[in-house]
Amino acid sequence: MRQALAHTAGFPNWRPDCWDSDGWNPEGKELLTYFEPGDQFGYSDEGYMYVQHVVEHLTGRSGESHMHTELFRPAGMEFSTYLCTSDQVPDMATGHDEHGQPVKKQMYKSMCSAASLHSTPSDIAKILCASMQPGPSAGWHINADLTNEMTTAQVPVNDTASWHDHWQNVPITDDPYVSWGLGWATQNHNGSKAIWHWGDNGPFKAFALGYPEVGIGIVAMANGSNGFKLWSTLCSTAMGGEYPCIDWLNRVVYTE
After folding, report:
1. Rounded CA gap, 143 and 147, in Å?
2. What is 79-131 written as a DSSP string?
3. Which domains does the chain have, with CATH numbers?
4. Which has fewest Cβ within 10 Å: 88, 157, 185, 242?
5. Nearest Cα to Cα of residue 189 among 249, 245, 145
6. Average pLDDT over residues 199-204
7. Cα-to-chain-centroid distance, residue 48
8. Which of 63-72, 89-98, 234-243 has the lowest mean pLDDT?
């Protein structure tokens, strides 16, 4: 579980040909490991799916039900869900490609923990705020001990991009400022620690970053393929400073 959350399990980002019109469908498709678990960082959405299946097995309920009971409802995240069975949901944003043209939305008939979260900046901000400065006895399980586990760096990131062919053969160079914890990623730069994460589902982009020591942060979402280009300007304008984590995203995720 810890290796999956820290992206050190050795999995690829996704196993080949595991998506269809209904969402993630891994049936009959083998999941391989590409390096010794624990040895290095390699971003993997398959790892999140592994965690989801473990939680479902242990709790005896669906991941969607578990998340609503244990997080969404107690945290007041009324606009968050992992299911999307229609593109006619009121107020749902329409995605746009790099040319500004509307894109048909991927449907999700079952939860896909790595890809199907539908939410709003204000809902995600509740998680970010609780992770930065948790209360002594949060009623929805995000307490100081848990946030310390989630936000403590486990492994430095590197320039392997597990969604590209032959990614496992890329020489490993650890990033000096950016690491991954147990869910949240971290940035340690110029004496300040930040926690952050990003989302990318084609025409939908998202980014969240906060500084736990001072209690400030930002959550941004965009419904266009070029949305990631906003993150650096938004962060520097709102909070000042430099952002090696965004440099890493631009270098590794958004460079072909």
Report:
1. 6
2. T-BS-B--TT-TTPPPPB-TTS-B-PPPPBSS--TTT--B--HHHHHHHHHHH
3. 2-253 (3.40.710.10)
4. 88
5. 245
6. 94
7. 9
8. 89-98
CA distance 95 to 100: 9
Structure tokens belonging to residue 161: 């991009």
Distance of CA 1 to the CA centre of its chain: 16
What's the pLDDT tens digit per position in 158-195?
Answer: 998 888 877 888 888 899 999 999 999 999 999 999 99
Euclidean distance between CA atoms 152 and 255, whole angstroms: 28
3-state class (DSSP) for residue 42: coil
Instruction: Map tokens 């391989």 to a residue.
Output: 32
Residues near 103 by Cβ (< 8 Å), separated by ≥ 6? 94, 95, 96, 97, 202, 203
Q: C-alpha distances in angstroms, 222 versus 100, 106, 159?
A: 12, 16, 25
Q: How far apart, in Å, are the Cα atoms of 235 and each of 104, 107, 187?
A: 30, 31, 14
As a whole number of angstroms, the distance between CA 164 and CA 213 comes to 36
Rounded to an integer, the average pLDDT of 30-46 is 93
